[in-house]
Amino acid sequence: MLGIARVPDWYSTKEFNVFLKNTAIACVLMLAGSTFSLGQGEKQAEPSKRTTDARTAIPSVAQRVKQLDKDGDGKLTAKEVGETPFARTFMRWDDNLDGTVTEAEIGKYRRSRGIPIEGIVAARSRQQSPDGNVAAKLTIPDVDDLLRVSRGTRPPRQAIQNSAYVIKTKPHAVDGEKYVILTDHKGQDYLKSLQRLATHRDGLILRVDDLAVLSRNPDDMNIMREQLRKANVRYLAIAPRMETYRENTLLGMWELISTIDSDPQLDAFPGVLLASDEEKFAGLVDRSINYTPQSAQDIRPFAISQVPSMRELRSLQKSGILRKLFSEHGARTPTMGIYSAEAAAAPRLPGDQFWSYQAKSRSDYLKQFPDEAAQEFDRASLLVMHGHGIPGMSCGIDNEAISGVLSASVVLCGSCFSASPKKSDFPAMRRAPGGYNVEVRDAFTVRAIDNGACVAFGHMRLSQGFPHLYPVLETWMKGRTVGEAYQELVNGIIEMQGTESGGFVVTEPSANGRQPRQNLLLYVVFGDPAVRPFEQMVRSR
Length: 541
Description:
Elements: H1 14-21, H2 25-31, E1 55-58, H3 61-68, E2 76-77, H4 78-81, H5 90-93, E3 100-101, H6 103-112, E4 120-122, E5 147-149, H7 157-161, E6 165-167, E7 178-183, H8 188-200, E8 204-207, H9 218-231, E9 233-239, H10 247-257, E10 269-272, H11 278-290, E11 301-307, H12 314-327, E12 335-339, E13 354-358, H13 371-379, E14 382-386, E15 389-390, E16 393-394, E17 397-398, E18 410-413, E19 431-432, E20 436-437, H14 444-450, E21 455-459, H15 466-476, H16 482-497, E22 523-526
Parallel strand pairs: 5-6, 7-8, 7-9, 9-10, 11-12, 11-14, 12-13, 14-18, 18-21
Antiparallel strand pairs: 1-4, 2-3, 15-16, 16-17, 19-20, 21-22
Helix pairs in contact: 8-11, 15-16
């Protein structure tokens, strides 16, 4: 396989590794009320007259235009801007070079530089908890206003703190045409289910003794790589046993299918087939065979956000973004907010169909939805979650909350450990971001699959959440398959990190518990890679 040159990028920096290891540091930085230089012409000194409730660092686009628009016609001219600090910026704003500048043009300029359309409000807001802690300001941008990050691009610090950016992904063509199942299952009930799926997809099954150790033997890898080439693989359904579902099993798959041809990208559309026993595995296969893509008219989203403190509102913001997005398709998005004891006075999302659960302690997880929220949860076809997580809990929701049949056939969970293996290749973590104790419990997304989901997105260890979750959802909403979205995400991370053949599998985990660079490649999509979760959805804007 051809290597690619390594160039400095923020995904490879020490700063990023520290951020990934403990995302809670974002809250500390936000408390400091720091302001940042976000592009020429868009810096503004603090107002000389400070109010007691807020201090504006950068106004919104609408506020900026109103500030400079002397004749009130909603547009800016060079004359209006000429005697202001933004005289030189006018030409950069004027995208179509017609001599006037609109809000849309300034918005486009800001997006290109990672500056929020809604501006940045630093320091304080009016909401305050009983102990005097002040809540951050909750802003809900449009998803199109978020910066798209590619290799060599570093998001602004505030965007990192709020996870308010999206990794840039793109399609990567696959020449093969065959559906292939790669498994180490030996039980006859599992193999019968896999054979039914292979027959349905006109595919074939390749078997190995142990997927967890396949990558350790170069000869075995070469044999399997050649088998995949001869099979002309297009979709690769990876079906490990529960005991061989491990970090290096997944990383070994990336090593394998990124070396089918000479480019450094994955050369097949992958998906992981996993359930906790034979009966639940058979149910997953049955649902995959009978699955019908959801249309814009049929989709019923439900969002869950965890609010761990007065200052950490990024997960709540993401539910607000999704509510805006799905409203463009005519769908409402009922939302459940899980508030920690420290976040009792934190903001709520505006609008109806928002419910909140007030936790009494750090270990108080929601196990039963309030009646009205339960009704909407029980009819949802899509579940999207943001927040912290450990095995057995995601985004403040205990696994017991989905003890019955899950109606949501598609689940996307942005929390850490939402797809954790029972046995890990890495040293055990005792504490997860958010200060939670890591326990040995079932992964949330595995529970979701066991209880009725057809597709579930999660992470084996430390997830970045929305920046990597949203591209998967976005690709599915374009009418593309589970495997296509999964491949695009992993390829995007490979390109960001410059990962080469030989650099996927972790051979010597750090003794001090530091997360390896490969942590970013541990996203998992459970489900048949050939399933299309949604029909193509056209946004009405």
